[in-house]
């Protein structure tokens, strides 16, 4: 007696077998990828710590273990209008001079503003009058934020990323935040002592558009090995390691003349902050 195949049942079995096969293949591929990335394993991280230690580079923070990637951002430099800067800093009463092409200086008594290429601002106060005694970090931060707000700078998109006392002065750095990550190089730095804000340097970036493409870079443990070729980092202590958005025209599409850059795209990078305030950006792939 001839038995005929039940094609309906056979097709169901084939479909199920096909699905199971795909699931198993996917699991194998994912497992393989996980096994390939050895640079976030404990053994590799321990080796990195030991190798850096040979150069007296100490790591006083957790080393991130993520597979790092960030989407691209189109950013543009904050444009500094000399008239507005004069009004914000000196109530419009400063004296404006064109020092050289692209450089404008505004002076008011013992205070000076220098604007370079409409995107970099430098403030200096040469007054010797002491106004604040017994400064601590909390008071210094309050003075810094008041100074910024009084000159119409928003403090909602920045974070205090560094503060340290050197002698009688405090050095502070504020960094732009985007999606809870630092945006480098977008910084406002200050030196404050008993006389108040003595200097301020600012170059600020504003995000314009968020791209859909994600870029992957080396893991943090592997990236840290780049420090071995940087003698300036020897003998220092790392206090923070974080993934950041990074735009530096000198390293991207404006190598010949980075001063002409107005906008561009960021890439992901590792931001390594040392105890003394030194900051290294590692953007190797």
Structure notes:
The protein has 285 residues and is α+β, with helices and mostly antiparallel strands. It folds into 2 domains: 39-74 and 212-282, Lipocalin (Beta Barrel), CATH 2.40.128; 79-203, 2-Layer Sandwich (TATA-Binding Protein), CATH 3.30.310.160. The chain is 25% helix and 39% strand. The chain has helices spanning 7-36, 42-53, 82-90, 137-150, 220-224; strands at residues 58-59, 69-77, 95-100, 103-108, 111-116, 120-125, 158-166, 169-178, 181-193, 196-203, 205-216, 237-246, 263-265, 267-274, 279-282. Strands 1, 3, 4, 5, 6, 7, 8, 9, 10, 12, 14 and 15 form a 12-stranded mixed beta sheet that branches. Strands 11-2-13 form a 3-stranded antiparallel beta sheet, with no helix packed on it. It is globular. The model is unreliable at 1-5 and 13-35 (pLDDT under 50).
What's the Cα radius of gyration? 27 Å
- Which second-level CATH architecture of the largest domain applies? 2-Layer Sandwich
Q: Which fold name is given in CATH as the topology of the largest domain?
A: TATA-Binding Protein
- Mean pLDDT comes to 87
Q: What is the percentage of strand-forming residues?
A: 35-45%
Q: Provide the domain count.
A: 2
Order of helices and strands: HHEEHEEEEHEEEEEHEEEE
Strand-pairing-aware structural class: alpha+beta
Q: Note the gap between the termini.
A: 68 Å
């Amino acid at each position: 007696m001839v038995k005929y195949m039940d094609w309906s049942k056979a097709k169901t079995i084939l479909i199920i077998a096909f699905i199971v096969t795909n699931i198993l293949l996917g699991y194998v591929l994912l497992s393989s990828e996980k096994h390939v990335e050895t640079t976030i394993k404990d053994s590799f991280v321990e080796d990195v710590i030991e190798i850096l230690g040979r150069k007296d580079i100490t790591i006083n923070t957790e080393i991130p273990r993520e597979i790092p990637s960030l989407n691209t951002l189109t950013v543009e430099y904050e444009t500094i209008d000399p008239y507005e800067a004069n009004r914000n800093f000196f109530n419009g009463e400063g004296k404006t001079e064109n020092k050289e092409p692209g450089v404008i200086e505004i002076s008011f008594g013992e205070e000076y503003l220098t604007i370079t290429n409409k995107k970099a601002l430098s403030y200096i106060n040469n007054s010797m009058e002491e106004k604040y005694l017994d400064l601590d970090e909390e008071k210094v931060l309050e003075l810094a934020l008041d100074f910024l707000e009084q000159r119409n700078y928003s403090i909602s998109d920045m974070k205090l990323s560094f503060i340290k006392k050197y002698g009688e002065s405090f050095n502070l750095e504020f960094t732009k935040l985007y999606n809870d990550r630092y945006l480098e190089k977008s910084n406002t730095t200050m030196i404050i002592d008993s006389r108040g804000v003595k200097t301020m340097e600012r170059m600020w970036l504003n995000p314009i558009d968020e791209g859909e493409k994600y870029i992957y870079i080396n893991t943090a443990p592997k990236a840290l090995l780049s420090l071995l070729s940087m003698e300036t980092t020897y003998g220092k202590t790392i206090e923070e390691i974080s993934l950041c958005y990074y735009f530096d025209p000198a390293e991207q599409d404006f190598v010949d003349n980075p001063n002409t850059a107005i906008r561009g795209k960021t890439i992901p990078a590792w931001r390594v902050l040392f105890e003394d305030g030194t900051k290294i950006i590692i953007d190797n792939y």
